[in-house]
Amino acid sequence: MGTFKIEGGVALKGEITPQGAKNEALQILCAVLLTPEKVTINNIPDIIDVNKLITLLKNLGVKVEKIGKGSYTFQSDEVNVGYLETEAFKKEGGSLRGSIMIVGPLLARYGRGYIPKPGGDKIGRRRLDTHFEGFINLGAKFRYNREDHFYGVEATEGLTGTDMLLDEASVTGTANIVMAAVLAKGTTTIYNAACEPYLQQLSKMLNSMGARITGVGSNLLKIEGVDKLGGCEHTILPDMIEIGSWIGLAAMTRSEITIKNVSWDNLGIIPNTFRKLGITLERQGDDIYIPAHTDGYEVKTDIDGSILTIADAPWPGFTPDLLSIVLVVATQAKGDVLIHQKMFESRLFFVDKLIDMGAKIMLCDPHRAVVIGHDFKSQLKATTMSSPDIRAGISLLIAALSAKGTSTIQNIEQIDRGYEDIEARLRAIGARISRED
After folding, report:
1. What is the pLDDT along the chain (437 residues), one digit of tens a residue?
2. Which helix (H) or strand (E) covers residue 39, if one does?
3. Catalytic one among 49, 121, 321, 416?
């Protein structure tokens, strides 16, 4: 297991460019299975979760060629669907939650798709019902081997379009159902669909391949099935979660940082949420400029003067992946904040590590924490800690970079799952961080 050694309390300065969006990449890579023609994808992040999925595609028989940094071609003209029923696949597919999204494309094109219970972050229960109920609505037969935790759907006669109302606006569930529906017979309407920028990007890519999807960007999608899809070229958006991470880093370390090429139009309420914490950030073209907050930052209360509450919600609400960052940033704000994590019940359990560093946090229950800001009058102190998941890991890293002394973060493979070459990029703006085996 790798370890980061971090000397904190150092102001940073410079420019940092976000990687391609992890959550978009996982959807887009699965979509290459829908066509035998060549698909070119640019701005793919070089991170563990994405590289695992690329390896899985190769093992399925997809021809993969790297043509430049972050750019690959994929051709799925000789897919070995039989690989899905091997012990090797059960082990490989179970190590990555994003692998669930190969099921929709394989079901649509080959009439069957199987997946072991997927892995990923341990952030509470993450149900798969939305995925499989969607496939069943399209005419697939579902089977589940409880002993092996192995899921399967089959549609030997093909899929048929239908109207469906999703029981939750699941991002991966919507993506999976959309990828299945594009090759179904007839028309499918999906109400209560997720509408995140990642879903919009997937839909635009599929339309460029010949799909007929309307309502993109809304929670009501209409999909007219087509007989086949062709190749295309697609570029992945910058990662909004990484952009939010760098905003938090700049504020906590009181650093002057410019985040380059952020695709402002796809950030939703993320910038304004950080502004509610008192953070100054400016739009400069398509960049975000954050000045050094030498005098700190003051939380804005609600209109009636009550404590600020920041909660997650499906898009266009605030993404749950950034609540951990907001919580850490709030520890040094002037004022108090209630963090309400509605969507996952175990995502706030890393706060004990921040409390060990001197943060004033009251964990009310698995979903809510009250943060009493220090206003930089008391610096966090260095400690040794372990990263429980990707987003908690980067939050602890930000805390360590702001702390007094040298911190150690263990289990950094969790951070590597979502952040590309992170220590080199941080060192480039002045961070004192090293990786040890």
Report:
1. 789 999 999 999 999 999 999 999 999 999 999 999 999 999 999 999 999 999 999 999 999 999 999 999 999 999 999 998 888 888 787 767 778 999 999 999 999 998 887 654 443 345 688 999 999 999 999 988 776 677 889 999 999 999 999 999 999 999 999 999 999 999 999 999 999 999 999 999 999 999 999 999 999 999 999 999 999 999 999 999 999 999 999 999 999 999 999 999 999 999 999 999 999 999 999 999 999 999 999 999 888 889 999 999 999 999 999 999 999 999 999 999 999 998 877 778 899 999 999 999 999 998 999 999 999 999 999 999 998 888 899 999 999 999 999 999 999 998 998 899 999 999 999 999 999 98
2. strand 38-42
3. 121
Tokens of 23: 């959550």
- Name the amino acid, one letter, at 364: C
Contact residues for 12 (Cβ-Cβ < 8 A; gap 6+): 249, 250, 253, 255, 256, 257, 401, 426, 429, 430, 431
User: Is residue 129 within a helix (H) or strand (E), and if so which, with residue range?
Assistant: helix 129-137
Distance CA 270, CA 240 (A): 8
Q: Which of 287, 290, 261 is nearest to 277 (CA)?
A: 290
The Cα–Cα gap between 235 and 60 comes to 23
Tokens describing residue 232 = 């295309």
The Cα 382–Cα 7 span in angstroms is: 8
Name every residue whose Cβ is closer than 8 Å to that of residue 332 and which is 6 or more positions away in sequence.
Answer: 251, 252, 296, 373, 374, 375, 376, 380, 402
pTM over 0.85: yes
User: Catalytic residue at 121?
Assistant: yes
